[in-house]
């Protein structure tokens, strides 16, 4: 009886500690997520999700507690389609960040100063010379740019939007283009959009003196234009003509003087006749 009573507590303790033992040995099972099911909700990332399945990257993603995935949509992921599946796995491994980042956290990064982070590709041990590290910069235009930390690598991708997140476990961010890793794979990237050049409006040239002379020669002068538009006989000229036909003041005086002289002469003749008649008497 004593032995049975002593064994009972030990069995109870074993059942009590089993869940704790399970949590300690399998911590990822508590916060695990299924990236495949998550991306299945977004058909525009179907090709990217398919690559994660074929390369078995989804298995590594699902065992992580904290992770950020830089996803490519169907039109963008085709830029790496010419590579072998092994190379695609390395390229996409660099698109998986071993930390949690969402747009709010990215915009808190120092402006203009690149931040270096670790990707899943680095954890494989196959990356060399910074190939497994990424650089993120919050540029002065407020954009978030991504690039490989390898020497000479460009900032080839930009943040487009947040696709899905579960703080602070998993974040899926859409980027504009694949991250180019020097020495790994080929990339069929679209050419950069041409910059819009500002073209100043062209002002019409001012007329030169020679042009003024030509215009003046072609156009009638004010005097000739006035003459061309004036009637043949203006009122003033008609008045002048009428005045020429009518007797002027000089002509009137001349006629009056002649009449006066005629009357004086006639009176003298009459007076002389009277004198002669008186003498005859």
UniProtKB/TrEMBL annotation:
<keyword id="KW-0732">Signal</keyword>
<dbReference type="InterPro" id="IPR033254">
    <property type="entry name" value="Plant_FLA"/>
</dbReference>
<keyword id="KW-0654">Proteoglycan</keyword>
<feature type="signal peptide">
    <location>
        <begin position="1"/>
        <end position="32"/>
    </location>
</feature>
<comment type="similarity">
    <text>Belongs to the fasciclin-like AGP family.</text>
</comment>
<feature type="region of interest" description="Disordered">
    <location>
        <begin position="198"/>
        <end position="262"/>
    </location>
</feature>
<keyword id="KW-0325">Glycoprotein</keyword>
<dbReference type="GO" id="GO:0098552">
    <property type="term" value="C:side of membrane"/>
</dbReference>
<keyword id="KW-0472">Membrane</keyword>
<protein>
    <submittedName>
        <fullName>Fasciclin-like arabinogalactan protein 3</fullName>
    </submittedName>
</protein>
<dbReference type="InterPro" id="IPR036378">
    <property type="entry name" value="FAS1_dom_sf"/>
</dbReference>
<feature type="domain" description="FAS1">
    <location>
        <begin position="32"/>
        <end position="97"/>
    </location>
</feature>
<comment type="function">
    <text>May be a cell surface adhesion protein.</text>
</comment>
<feature type="compositionally biased region" description="Low complexity">
    <location>
        <begin position="246"/>
        <end position="262"/>
    </location>
</feature>
<keyword id="KW-0449">Lipoprotein</keyword>
<dbReference type="InterPro" id="IPR000782">
    <property type="entry name" value="FAS1_domain"/>
</dbReference>
<dbReference type="GO" id="GO:0005886">
    <property type="term" value="C:plasma membrane"/>
</dbReference>
<keyword id="KW-1003">Cell membrane</keyword>
<keyword id="KW-0336">GPI-anchor</keyword>
């Amino acid at each position: 009886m004593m032995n049975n009573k002593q064994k009972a507590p030990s069995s109870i303790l074993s059942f009590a500690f089993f869940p704790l033992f399970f949590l300690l040995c399998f911590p990822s099972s508590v916060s695990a997520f299924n990236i495949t099911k998550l991306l299945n909700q977004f058909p525009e990332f179907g090709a990217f999700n398919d690559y994660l399945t074929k390369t078995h990257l989804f298995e590594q993603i699902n065992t992580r507690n904290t992770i950020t995935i830089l996803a490519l949509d169907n039109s963008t992921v085709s830029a790496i389609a010419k590579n072998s599946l092994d190379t695609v796995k390395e390229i996409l491994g660099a698109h998986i960040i071993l930390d949690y980042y969402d747009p709010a956290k990215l915009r808190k990064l120092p402006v203009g100063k690149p931040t270096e982070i670790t990707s899943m590709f680095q954890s494989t041990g196959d990356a060399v010379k910074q190939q497994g590290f990424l650089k993120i910069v919050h540029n002065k235009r407020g954009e978030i740019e991504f690039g490989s930390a390898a020497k000479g690598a460009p900032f080839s991708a930009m943040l487009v939007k947040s696709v899905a997140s579960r703080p602070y476990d998993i974040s899926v961010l859409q980027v504009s283009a694949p991250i180019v890793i020097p020495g790994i794979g080929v990339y069929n990237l679209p050419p950069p959009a041409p910059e819009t050049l500002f073209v100043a409006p062209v002002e019409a040239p001012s007329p030169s003196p020679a042009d003024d002379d030509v215009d003046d020669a072609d156009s009638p002068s004010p005097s000739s234009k006035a003459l061309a538009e004036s009637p043949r006989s203006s009122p003033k000229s008609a008045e002048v003509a009428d005045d020429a036909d009518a007797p002027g003041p000089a002509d009137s005086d001349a006629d009056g003087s002649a009449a006066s002289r005629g009357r004086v002469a006639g009176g003298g003749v009459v007076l002389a006749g009277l004198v002669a008649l008186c003498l005859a008497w």
